[in-house]
Amino acid sequence: MSTVSTRAPARADGPAGTRPPARRRRARRREQRWPAYVFLTPWMLGAAVLTLVPMAVSLYLSFTDYNLFDPPRWVGLRNYQEMLTEDPRFWRSVGTTLLYVVIAVPLKLLLALGAAMLLKNLGRGRAFYRSAFYAPSLLGASMTIALVWRALFNDGGSVVDILGSVGIDTGGWVGSPDLAVYVIVLLTVWQFGAPMVIFLAGLQQISPELYEAAALDGAGRWRQFVSVTVPMLSPVVFFNLVLEMIQSFQVFTPAFAVSGGEGGPADSTLFYTLYLYERGFTASHMGYAAAMAWLLLVVIGIITLILFRTSRSWVFYADEEGR
Amino acid sequence: MPEPRSGRRRPLSRRAVLAAAAVGLSTALTASLSACSSSGDVSSGGVTLTFSWWGNDDRAARTKKAVELFEKEHPGVTVRTSNADFGSYMQKLATQAAGGGIPDVAQLDYRQISQYAGGGALLPLGDALADGTIRTSEMDEEFVRTGLYEGEQYALPMGRGITGYAYDSAVYEKAGIPTPRPDWTWEEWARANRRITDLGLESPDGRTVVGANDNGVNEDIFEDWLRSRGGKLYRSQTELGFTEDDLTEFWTFCDKLRDEGVVAEAEDTSQANTTELSPMGRGLAAADFTWDAPFPGYTALLGDQVHFAPVPTADGRQGAYFKPSMLLGVGAGSEHPKEAAALVDFLLNDERAGDVLGFTRSTPPNRGIAARVARTLEGAEKEIYEYAQRMEKYGLDAPPPAPPRGDVAIQTAFKRAYHRVMYDLASPRAAAREFIDEAERELRS
């Protein structure tokens, strides 16, 4: 906005004082906004046609029984009610997803922070290691990697064989209801590169003066970490936490690949999104699937809101120092 | 944006972090249900038909060749073909049906008939059958009825499949078990499993070779078991044909054999998605229940000592039946229903098409063509052809009408529910109760 007011006089037309100043300013602003909207049109069209309309349709479908063949039939809250009160698999999928989020997100963030701390002080080779650690984040979302992962942890897979040769006989993880979910947890944690790069950027933002001052006061490395790094980095931690949490709730590809699309064995990898997909595309209950999608949206929204609210007590923003 | 003050790095502002997080939230959430596909139909003079199927490369090559023959016979008709693997084909066809148009001619799964016919996606074929555009005189009448929905013919079977039992005859001989006959019983089968396990043969990974795969996951085999006792899977389009007690008995039987260690372990059963990964394919078990069409895959993998035998019975009554492995239907929105019907007839009844297509969709339903093609078969393919003839001679009950709409979901639910038994997460009765609840919910909706 400041750019608008500084440039405004140069484009002023008509003698001053013919119109009240406030009205003139408003008129000018209107005049100068339309090019912005013109340039935004492609994006807004895309957002409307590809995002808002499908979302509205999906909200409507969530109140219907729709099998792709017959026209949607209005059932009110029936889908939501069935989901919450009659469907044991829905709750199993919620349990599996929560277990996964609670384990995978902290592990991934800790690993990312640890790696970022190590890389921060690395002189030569930092660019190489940064790229090397980041690579899995680029590859990890692909179906291929998930299939490789499945092979590694299957009966006769390398990981299982190596563990077996050192006396840890686990059997195939993929076939075990207790272990299968950890195959997916490990695949997620392995992709710690993306939050790591953000942590690294955050670490580099912390002024060296703060560390110097802390060192002069006799703070050791641990003290410096706790009293300087952690508070200064807390906005970045918060950012990564929110992002990873949202992504983890929506994990799909690895669960689909590792379980062969069925969420097995015995529903142990039946993530929420996988169950949603199964309801919609295998069982042709699009209304039910849409209801699940909307419930997920609401729940993620609520959890994000809670994170934002609690963040006030633990996230430190440097620009709030004076307040 | 203001310049950072001299020397000091700009600390992250609250607003920047909040904005970034908000962007992250919104982009992450836009990943939602969306699948679209549409195909424009361009015909340039004459008639253009579309025809789609699922299946492997061999089937694709043979089908395209048969289509070329059809085009030569019908000048002015062009057929545009498309094919995919089973999973994506099912989804694509469902989306096309929702968008108002499946191809003029489409290969369909038995489980789709009720849904597609009931949903108005298929053209009734009564007229084409009445005026002889599509001929069924060379086909088994009962078998043709598998394409009925509410008394109307919506599709015609393209191939005829039957369940059976792939077993390693060398192991069976060593254990002194006679060759399984069409009237062998489930008790004999259980005893065979015990004797094979008692041999103590070592599998490639060092464990003892067991009698067979655990067939508790296999709804097709449960259906054979039910039929052999006079029951059926579905009473109607909205009702199951069996009770909690029936299923509990079946699963208890399977569960007990696995507990005894004479059929495959839970971990091996849950990984058995392909022939290669099945306990028999991995050398862990001496036998497996399977359909006839995939059987040649077992001999290719394990050798010629593997043979195809009948599914056990309760007391001589065979539960296996001839099932359409796939059907052909005409899209309700087809602009050229006459030509589409002609293509259906050509693929089913023309001798030259029959020669080209061979057994790529298991036994052709046209008896004349099946016998003609059978003369050229050898090895495992010949064995499944002879098996089918033997079973026909032995006598099988009529196949059930097309399964209800929810059948796809019910079949996966069956497998999943038994997984809970396998891993001791539920008793056979509790799992049966849960499965029946789910199946009934599926049939109601």
Automatic annotation (TrEMBL), chain A:
It comes from the Bacteria. The keyword Transmembrane applies. The chain crosses the membrane at residues 34-63, 98-119, 131-152, 179-203, 224-243, 286-308. It is a multi-pass membrane protein. It is found in: Cell membrane. Residues 1-28 are annotated as: Disordered. Its main location: membrane. This is ABC transporter permease.
UniProtKB/TrEMBL annotation, chain B:
Residues 1-31 form the signal peptide. Keywords: Signal. The keyword Transport does not apply. The keyword Signal applies. Pfam families: SBP_bac_1. This is Extracellular solute-binding protein.
